């Protein structure tokens, strides 16, 4: 450990610390100012449904720019190369556009306060309880990932023990979420988006200069051990998917990642949906994920490319690539590149960008965790019919409790050399079966409440079973193949059981399902007239989604 600490130690100077300190002043200041706008629980948990689309759109994408995106994707870039772009162009953009065009009208139009509450209305209490509990568990596990990496940065920068770094990092995030609730999280996420881009763009430019531009990077990857030309093309992505067959790899990426995992995450994950729910009207809510799709498609160039550069430019990672070194892991790619390339001042900005990304991720987890715990579990099942002020106070205490649990789950994250493996595994457990239940229930009015909760539980159990079989060597699924297969199996099992059970149980009446099932909801209820200032062509959700999709297809062709 000492050897690794010395390898990763960053030579920060006074100017770097000053930049970091200024950032923390802004973060806590936003939390303090946001507190003035919190007068009831709706303000705390959903920002009073009052925010403009550009704010919620940037927050939507920033909330996902946590440990998963920054360290995880740069690690994937170092290990797998260009196929990692599938997490963005296949595994994010289509689902984000589907959320904005098709699903947001149901969420926002029904005025539910959370995704589990939508489940309650569609399927009843058993499915609601399963969804709420599984979501809460997933959020503290994922918050632990962000917290662990945030603590790692503090440890590298200051040399503090990891456990001290974990607690200090947790207290900072806890402070502004507890003060200002979702508004503090969202406005900080907007700030963090610009800080992250300002930090990673120069690192990418300097890195490309070091390796001789894009062609120099291509030449170095081509001759690198355990790399080669397959890391320079997005398709078929065999190393990433874990399949030897190119055909199976493409199927796994398109169906497992691009459909089940992606749609499961972006369309049903309350961490993301909560940002759109905070919008001022339905048009803004629909545009939120679509606006987020535009920066999302270009994030790979400042996250994945630096990982690819680090793999061929940093000696310690070159040793890992060739199988002769173990002093660092792929998760260290960005830190090592920063250590080798950035001068003081720029180093401080880069460190601030990393801190911002982890804080954005953890804050998003906590702000959605406290909403589901308070509205869907405590108010619904534990302490009913109390004043709004009681639930506002409860939400703040739940945030404290969630942070304490996340400190514990950070230890789990520390055991993975590539954190994307861990995160994708969690998504296969929780998001894949939830998406199956959602999509069937939204488009098939015959699906019943019993099918809802049985499908959820069975799908999750199937994904866990695939994970256990892979871990014990019964089936051989290297890379992230286990999460792709697990997600696909969970989806199929959930759908099949839900159909069989629905055909043998009694569905709700058409009147009860109005606003919850697509075919039973009049078009007028799925849209609303344009509000003041929403008449421009660039504010039309469907047109914006079409432009985003065309750009994504073009990027796949160019880099395929």
Automatic annotation (TrEMBL):
Under the GO molecular function aspect, what terms does this record hold? D-glucose:sodium symporter activity
- Keywords, sorted A to Z: Membrane, Transmembrane, Transmembrane helix
Q: Where in the cell is it found?
A: Membrane
Major location (coarse):
membrane
User: Could you tell me which InterPro entries the record lists for this protein?
Assistant: Na/Glc_symporter_sf, Na/solute_symporter
Question: Which Pfam families does the record associate with it?
Answer: SSF (PF00474)
Recorded coiled-coil stretches: none
Give Gene Ontology CC terms.
plasma membrane
What membrane topology term does the record carry?
Multi-pass membrane protein
Transmembrane regions listed in the UniProt entry:
14-34, 54-75, 87-108, 129-154, 160-179, 191-209, 247-268, 289-314, 346-373, 394-416, 422-444, 451-470, 482-503, 542-559
Does the keyword section mention Transmembrane?
yes
| PROSITE patterns reported for this sequence | NA_SOLUT_SYMP_3
Q: Does the keyword Ion transport apply?
A: no
Family, according to the entry, reads as follows:
Belongs to the sodium:solute symporter (SSF) (TC 2.A.21) family.
PANTHER family annotated for this entry?
A: SODIUM_GLUCOSE COTRANSPORTER 4, SOLUTE CARRIER FAMILY 5
Its protein name is SSS sodium solute transporter superfamily
């Amino acid at each position: 450990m000492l050897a690794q600490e010395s390898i990763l130690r960053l030579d920060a100077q006074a100017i770097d610390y000053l930049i970091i300190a200024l950032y923390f002043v802004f973060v806590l200041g936003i939390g303090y100012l946001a507190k003035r706008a919190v007068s009831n629980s709706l303000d705390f948990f959903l920002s009073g449904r009052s925010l403009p689309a550009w704010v919620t759109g940037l927050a939507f994408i920033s909330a996902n720019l946590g440990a998963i995106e920054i360290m995880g994707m740069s690690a994937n870039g170092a290990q797998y190369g260009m196929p990692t772009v599938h997490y963005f162009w296949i595994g994010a953009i289509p689902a984000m556009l589907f959320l904005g065009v098709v699903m947001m009208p149901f969420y926002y139009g029904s005025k539910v306060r959370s995704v589990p509450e939508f489940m309650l209305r569609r399927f009843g209490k058993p499915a609601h309880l399963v969804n709420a509990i599984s979501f809460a568990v997933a959020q503290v596990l994922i918050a632990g990932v962000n917290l662990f990496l945030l603590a790692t940065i503090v440890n590298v920068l200051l040399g503090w023990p990891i456990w001290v770094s974990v607690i200090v990092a947790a207290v900072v995030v806890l402070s502004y979420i507890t003060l200002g609730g979702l508004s503090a999280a969202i406005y900080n996420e907007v700030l963090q988006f610009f800080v992250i881009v300002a930090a990673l763009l120069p690192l990418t430019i300097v890195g490309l200069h070091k390796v001789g531009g894009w062609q120099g990077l291509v030449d170095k990857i081509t001759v690198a051990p355990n790399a080669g030309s397959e890391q320079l093309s997005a398709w078929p992505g065999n190393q990433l998917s874990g399949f030897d067959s190119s055909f199976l790899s493409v199927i796994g990426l398109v169906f497992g990642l691009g459909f089940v995992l992606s749609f499961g995450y972006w369309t049903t994950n309350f961490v993301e949906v909560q940002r759109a729910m905070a919008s001022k009207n339905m048009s803004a809510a629909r545009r939120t994920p679509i606006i987020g799709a535009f920066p999302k498609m270009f994030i790979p160039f400042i996250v994945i490319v630096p990982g690819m550069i680090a793999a061929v430019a940093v000696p310690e990672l070159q040793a890992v690539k060739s199988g002769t070194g173990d002093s660092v892991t792929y998760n260290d790619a960005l830190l090592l590149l920063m250590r080798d390339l950035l001068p003081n001042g720029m180093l401080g900005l880069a460190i601030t960008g990393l801190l911002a990304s982890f804080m954005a991720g953890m804050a998003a987890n906590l702000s959605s965790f406290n909403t589901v715990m308070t509205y869907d579990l405590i108010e619904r099942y534990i302490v009913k019919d109390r004043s709004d002020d009681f639930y506002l106070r409860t939400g703040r205490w739940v945030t404290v409790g969630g942070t304490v649990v996340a400190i514990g789950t950070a230890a789990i994250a520390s055991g993975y050399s590539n954190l994307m493996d861990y995160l994708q595994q969690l998504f296969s457990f929780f998001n894949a079966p939830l998406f199956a239940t959602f999509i069937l229930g939204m488009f098939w009015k015959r699906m019943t409440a019993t099918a809802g909760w049985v499908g959820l539980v069975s799908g999750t159990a199937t994904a866990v079973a695939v994970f256990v079989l892979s871990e014990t060597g019964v089936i051989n699924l290297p890379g992230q193949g286990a999460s792709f297969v697990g997600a696909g199996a969970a989806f199929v099992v959930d759908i099949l059981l839900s159909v069989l059970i629905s055909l043998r149980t009694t569905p709700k009446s058409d009147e009860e399902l109005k606003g919850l099932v697509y075919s039973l909801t009049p078009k007028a209820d799925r849209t609303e007239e344009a509000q003041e200032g929403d008449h421009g062509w660039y504010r039309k959700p469907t047109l914006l989604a079409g432009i985003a999709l065309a750009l994504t297809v073009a990027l796949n062709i160019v880099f395929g």
